[in-house]
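Sorry to interrupt, but I need a hand with the structure work. Could you write out one complete protein record for me, on any chain you like? Just paste the record in under my message, thanks.

. . .
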Amino acid sequence: MSDDTATAVTEHRLAFRGFEYVVRAARAEATDRSTSTEPLILLGGSSQDRFSWLRYEKFLLPHTTVLTMELPGYGEADPLPVEHGMDFLADTVHHTTQALSLGSVNVFGACFGAAIALRMAQRHPDSVARLMLGGTAHTTSPEYLEAAERWRIMAEERSFDALAQDMVAQFMAPPDHGTVRRRAAVARLMLRRFASLTERELAMDMVHHERLLTHPWSQPHPKVSAPVLVFTGEHDTITPPPIGRSVAEHLAARFTTIKESDHLVQIERDSELADLMAHFFTDRPLDQLPYLNPVESFTQNPTTAPVSA
């Protein structure tokens, strides 16, 4: 899509069970009908808002309407008490599809957003046409649980520089782990982002981490009926490839890794990830994409082993 292609953007202030939230819907006035697909909902990870995925629109709008959200507990939405977990947030996304008369939608979730996306596909299968999950796992790892506790203490002590440094160290692979595109630039970007959190954003972040400590990341049932692609960066150390592969196996999905990236693949290789989204959500082949390692398929041999929660 060229930069001068007309795009219509609408913001919706919605409410679900008493909590207000914000939805941004972007639609190109001209799309490629040969590769058009259902509306796409993008669900990012922690500390992301409805503007975090703007750079993806030029790649995706030729094919579909793109919706980004600030769910309750994030961005400008109402704060969300910690007792509300992924089920509530998934139901909020489903409420959006009904309130905006979207019909069946494609859903992309990265990191924390992947937990919400998967839960939506489990709880509202008729609403999800295709599901793409990035940087996901069966459970919250012990390392992340330890880190979240450190971050809580640092926030209480107002040690914001140390907090930012620790968060970046957790989310990015160590320098000797392998080649990661734009490593230094992304590290600087993340440091600025974490160090510049407002009091409100910091409070929301701390509740977010507490939410991860008190709610299961994943549920084994019900099965997901939509086609699923699971991916991560080949050097991801938070949700390493073997973990993503196991998730894909349990979901009878396809699995792949993106070269020269870690858990922050959406920043390090944004154009490539956007291209992967466009291919998957329009049912085009993935096998020859040069930025991917081999695509594995578990769709013909699903496992029946339970997913731990």
Remarks:
- Residues 301-309 have pLDDT under 50 and may be disordered.
- The beta strands are 7-16, 19-28, 40-43, 66-70, 105-110, 128-134, 228-233, 254-258, 296-297.
- The chain has two domains: 7-139+216-297, 144-209.
- The radius of gyration is 18 Å.
